[in-house]
Design a protein that fits this description.
2 copies of one chain form a homodimer. By secondary structure, the first copy, chain A, is of the alpha/beta class. Chain A is built from 12 helices and 12 strands. In chain A, helix 2 runs antiparallel to helix 9, helix 5 packs across helix 6 and helix 5 crosses helix 8. The longest helix of chain A has 24 residues. The model of chain A has no long low-confidence stretch (mean pLDDT about 95). The interface between A and B is large, with 87 and 87 residues.
Chain lengths: ~350, ~350
């Protein structure tokens, strides 16, 4: 607290990322990182950069990277925007599209950065309750309010919605922007990118942090109608002209161009996830259906079983980090990122001990 | 223009960076880049990063980099904040400290991003006119208005103000934040960092893009009282938790730790600048006293001489890029970045032709 803080700074409750503890024997299943390194082509591209390229400003519009992403998704370059991680893209999109003096709608159990952005910009937040089974019923969103944002699949539930449900909502909600946050869509959800051509108010965000193993790089993408993309560019160029550095631009291209590596990594994680679900269920956990690189699991409710809080602490003491929230409807659950098969075996050994 | 743009997006006039034309024979003296590459230690540090480090989120608080900067400047780590370029730091600082419903004061001829931030956040801008000789008279700032921001040295004039003048202003202006933007202070201006301990409302910003030859990396720094730094952290963690990627964190440390290389590069640029001033004066230019890595020069006003616009175009056609503004008091001037001695010889040959 300081007398120099504005009311905005004082009232903020900043986002808290998962613990970044490191060490020899830590099994880190708490921040949904990819357990596999990025394609070796990334470090080759980065190491090939010269000092002469570093002393110059990077391309402020990241045109070559956006071209590579456009080609990958069958889009035009003016339908693609890149930023310093998908969090920056969300921050810019909220400022660009949701500061319209109307309420922004998002699920009550969802990415916890959404209410933080609302607080930062003074946007009224209207939350939509998940159903009893933790699914998101898109019919509950009010059409043509100030805007809609939801992750697909949702976090921390890992449950996705269908493309037909998204289409139906877009057909009703036409006057404001709808942002589908596909941070975890690499692992099985159906992307809404294919609807961009039909719906000029649809913005879809992606990240390089999950399927592409580049959380350390900070690279996010938004896809949408050229006028939506131009709006993001206008805000970006009024905030920070060069958010994507020279390393991230070449590394992003190298990643996009190695499809075989990406598919192989993602497929391995999906297999490990399915195995993990089975093993957790065998141990009495209820596991929500996941299309993400994490599972949301309810600790066994049998007499004598540890509470989620106790189990979280037991695992943490054993060096296995997962995520737990002391919140209504979440407090008996753990969010567990999918690691390597070895990581998951260590988790199961801890659970059995 | 789009029906989905908010009023904010529609009213913005984004910042326009200098042209990033590239090619074999281009002499690029238009964006104040360093003509020398960064220390080789930077690429060594970057190339040593493993895929395992890239797949993980970077330290959201960049503690090791901030420790290196704190040690370099004789500060505590909680007096140091880092961001994705000094533009991001300015953007966060304006949001943190100047959205207080009072007018923000800055020079009328200054960094053209300041009015853009005001527009983005709805901050009232009050400009202070430079004197007839283009110096900034700090006495003209009203004490205890909504805040003060100015570059030292100023851009595009390259003229600095003294530390005693800054101290005198801080003694009068105690109720709101004063931000001294030292993007170009590597090249001779007296840094205000040494006043941080005395004045809890003083924030000083630096960049790695100029003296440290790392414009491609996007790394900026702010120094101030721990409570001011905490305010920036609160806004940062409500906007984008991880703005500084893994490459930038290790590269920044490598740069800070190679003082000999930094000093040698900066000293060479200062020598070239002094030589350039002499040669421009010999050709009839009026050159303002520069403590930056650029000079601001008025084209000869003699009969038959080219106007600044014509000369700008002539130079551009010859592949020598400088910066020119079609604005009152600036339109007869060119801003010329200091390149290598060879770059400056090429400029002089073009001027003589």
């Amino acid at each position: 607290m300081s007398t120099f803080w504005t009311d905005t700074v004082t009232r903020l409750t900043p986002y808290v990322p998962g613990e970044q503890r490191s060490g020899e024997n830590i099994i880190k299943l708490n921040t949904n990182e990819n357990p596999y390194p990025p394609t070796p082509a990334v470090m080759q591209a980065v190491s090939a950069l010269s000092g002469d390229q570093l002393r110059r400003y990077p391309d402020p519009e990241s045109v070559e990277l956006r071209k590579a992403l456009a080609a990958y998704h069958g889009l035009d370059v003016n339908q693609v925007f890149v930023g310093n991680g998908s969090d920056e893209i969300l921050a810019l999109a909220f400022l660009a599209y949701f500061t319209n003096n109307k309420a922004l709608q998002f699920p009550d159990i969802s990415y916890s950065f959404y209410p933080v952005y609302c607080d930062l910009y003074g946007i009224e937040a209207r939350t939509i309750a998940l159903e009893a089974d933790y699914t998101l019923e898109l019919d509950r969103f009010e059409a043509n309010a100030g805007g809609i944002v939801f992750p697909n699949p949702n976090a921390p539930t890992a449950i996705d919605v269908t493309l037909s449900a998204i289409r139906a909502l877009l057909e009703r909600h036409t006057q404001q922007v709808m942002l589908v946050d596909e941070a975890y869509a690499d692992f099985g959800a159906h992307s809404a990118i294919e609807l961009i051509g039909e719906f000029p108010n649809l913005l879809v965000s992606h990240t390089f942090s999950k399927g592409r193993s580049l959380a350390g790089l900070r690279l996010g993408v938004a896809f949408g109608h050229p006028q939506l993309i131009e709006g993001l560019q206008r805000v970006k160029n009024s905030f920070n002209s060069y958010p994507v550095d020279a390393f991230a631009q070449v590394a992003g291209i190298a990643s996009v161009q190695d499809e075989a590596y990406y598919r192989s990594t993602v497929d391995t994680i999906i297999q490990t996830r399915n195995q993990t679900v089975t093993e957790l269920q065998q141990r009495g956990f209820e596991v929500l259906p996941s299309t993400a690189n994490f599972v949301f699991a309810r600790v066994p409710q049998t007499a004598g079983a540890q509470s989620a809080t106790a189990l979280f602490n037991t695992l943490s003491d054993a060096g296995v980090l997962v995520r737990h929230w002391q919140k209504p409807r979440l407090d008996q659950w753990l969010r567990i990122s999918i690691g390597t098969p070895d990581d998951m075996r260590s988790l199961m050994h801890c659970l059995d001990a």
